[in-house]
Design a protein that fits this description.
Blueprint lengths: L1 E8 L3 H12 L8 E4 L41 H15 L10 E6 L6 E5 L2 E10 L21 E4 L15 E5 L3 H10 L5 E6 L5 E2 L5 H16 L8 H4 L1 E2 L2 H8 L5 E3 L3 E2 L3 E3 L5 E3 L2 E4 L24 E2 L2 E2 L2 E6 L8 H19 L3 H4 L16
Bound molecules: flavin-adenine dinucleotide (FAD).
Length: 374
Amino acid sequence: MENVEVVVIGAGQAGLSSAYHLRRTGLTPGEDFVVLDHAPAPGGAWQFRWPTLTYGRVHGMHALPGMELTGADPGRPSSEVIGEYFTHYEHRFGLSVRRPVDVREVRDADWGGRLLVRTSGGDWAARAVINATGTWDRPFWPRVPGQELFRGRQLHTSGYRGPDTDAFVGKRVVVVGGGTSAVQHLLEISEVARETVWVTRRPPLFRAGPFGPEEGRAAVALVEQRVRQGLPPQSVVSVTGLPMTEEMRRARERGVLERVPMFSRVTEDGVAWDDGSQAAADTILWATGFRPAIDHLAPLRLREPGGGIRLEGTRAVRDERVHLVGYGPSASTIGANRAGRAAVRDIRALLAGGHEAAAGTGTSTGTGLASPAA
Ligand SMILES: Cc1cc2nc3c(=O)[nH]c(=O)nc-3n(C[C@H](O)[C@H](O)[C@H](O)COP(=O)(O)OP(=O)(O)OC[C@H]3O[C@@H](n4cnc5c(N)ncnc54)[C@H](O)[C@@H]3O)c2cc1C
């Protein structure tokens, strides 16, 4: 077992921002703190996103602190652009990310006020943990009666590799979900499919105007409020609405964005509604989002009766040694940047032995949601 001051779990935007600030405040990577990630390569969840999600199609991707991302070709997949950028970033700041290391559980070490981090690559004892594990590893599949009967294919956004595959070309496709990813999938699949049906639980809210800092602040405040109450964080799009782009306007003219309400069951050959209507389908694509990947924190019993983890800034109210970054209101690239900085400021005060000094220092994760996630 190795002893360190801090373990950072996850090397996406939130984990790397945290590592940058830990180093900046004088801690040595690999000695005073370690960053663990179970993915095979740098890039956080970006490395797994579909190739047609080009860099030009992500809006408001904020650079990590201390190093700009310049000159990227907007036509290249964001998985490649951001994977390379994160690789340079890790080298430039000598962050020594250990991968692939899967964190299996975090529990109280029962000695020295430490936390025990158990992983596929050994155990660490730490005085604080920054959890930056994102959501990609926990795709959310709603349960709908009859799902197991369906003879076609069912995929989730997490397994989507673009429209030019057997699952979509010339096929009848049902896309489920009201977020940005659902709309992006729908737009490109509609170009190759025989027919598409778009299903959402609630009527989608399209936002015509620009999404400025004020709207960003308002959206973050709403998600923050839920997290402060110990409720599970909701999707950001449910707060901000969908941005109406030129591409979407054209798709709407083609009739692609005609949404229908959620079906009540899946049949062998498609989906069906209570009023007796049906849609035949070869493929159902569940663009139904993700949930925080935090099962490894279960032994710490951080969850509130409402199902979420109550945070003060980024700090878990039930355990001051644990911070969650990239969670809820900080689940965006700019939010993750700010959360990393806030968590480190708080943890440095904890390590210095004066947590009161950290409390109330304004660990708000800030405004920014430049572009809402799915
Ligand atoms: C399709 C899509 C498009 C988006 N577009 C934008 C955009 O345009 N602009 C924007 O600001 N935001 C966007 N977002 C949101 C943004 O990607 C994230 O909020 C942001 O990158 C923060 O990432 P993160 O570090 O919290 O998580 P991630 O990038 O998911 O990183 C988490 C890391 O933790 C690791 N990990 C997870 N569990 C474990 C474990 N048990 N043990 C070890 N390692 C573990 C994973 O391997 C991963 O590397 C988008 C999200 C999606 C899904």
